[in-house]
Amino acid sequence: MLLSRRKRKERKDLEIYLNFCPLTQVFSLKYLGIIIDSKLTFREHIKYITEKCSKLIFALSKSAKINRGLSQDALK
Fold this sequence. Notes:
The protein is built from 2 helices and 4 strands. The protein is α+β, with helices and mostly antiparallel strands. It is elongated.
C-alpha cells in the first residue's frame, strides 16, 4: 500500500519486489481491527462498522418480535 496525503497525482503502478517476487499493491488493509486506506482516512473502516452494526440490529429486531421470539428478560 502506498501511503500519502498529497494532493498531486502520484505514480500508482509501482512494482516492488521482495526476494525477486513482486508484491501486490492494495488500497486498504486491516491492521489490529482497524481498516486503513491509502489516503489515511477512516471511510472504509466506518463503512465496515456501520454494515456490521446494521446486521446486528436487524438480527436483534428479528429475535425481539412480540408474537414470537425472545422475551424482554431474555433480551436484557
